[in-house]
Automatic annotation (TrEMBL):
Homotrimer. The purine nucleoside phosphorylases catalyze the phosphorolytic breakdown of the N-glycosidic bond in the beta-(deoxy)ribonucleoside molecules, with the formation of the corresponding free purine bases and pentose-1-phosphate. It comes from Alistipes putredinis DSM 17216. This is Purine nucleoside phosphorylase. GO terms for molecular function: purine-nucleoside phosphorylase activity. Pathway: Purine metabolism; purine nucleoside salvage. Residues 23-265 form the Nucleoside phosphorylase domain.
Amino acid sequence: MLERIKETAAFIQARIENFQPEVGIILGTGLGDFADRIDEKYSIDYKEIPNFPVSTVEGHKGKLIFGLLEGRRVVAMQGRFHYYEGYTMQQVTFPVRVLKLLGIRYLFVSNASGGVNPSFRVGDLMVITDHINLMPNPLIGPNMAEFGPRFPDMHNCYDQHLIIRATRIAEEKGIKLQYGVYVGGTGPTFETQAEYRYFKAIGGDAAGMSTVPEVIVARHMSIPVFGVSVITNCGLSDEVGDHEDVQRQGAKAGVKMAELFMEMIKNL
């Protein structure tokens, strides 16, 4: 695996010449339009990249976008990978390993999620303060000591300094933020109401099918992480949602998320 990661990083590095991104951004369902705000320098389709998975989910365009955002060098994943697509956890998190070798020093993650906290409403932005992992851990298997320790600490896996900065920026910009714990499950079924009640009972505020594996691997490599969930449906209500609605709600709330991300990246 380590050799494949290095091979892929070398391929990308050759395509982007001397461009070294400082910030990696993973865009979730319905949030891919954020990449349009980047002053693009290079764009690479996932299918062109050796060893890279390919996005199979609608709403995930499947491109790496390199460019400038608020004067910072960034790389955005316009689409991520999920365990439910049939990929292994090592494949799901492979891009985060590659981004580390390309030079990122921060990782910003986003997702569309179902609200578990009854005070949340569709369109809310939830800053992720912690997570509960209900998926196989991506670090199972031989440890890649070159990246991090066998038993990485998951305290402060969502960087407290970045959360404080986000709070200050949101107050200045008049952006309403919620805060809470993200529950990561396998999918691809949307959760039952009994599962939502279970998530609430164990301390969850929002639930989805991504993000947690990427964050675990980022923290294994000591990369500070900031995460936001866009609440696209409220799981404890009687409303029935579908993937198309998740994409629509994600795109609408993504405007607020983009403003927050841009200001944070500007002030890193």
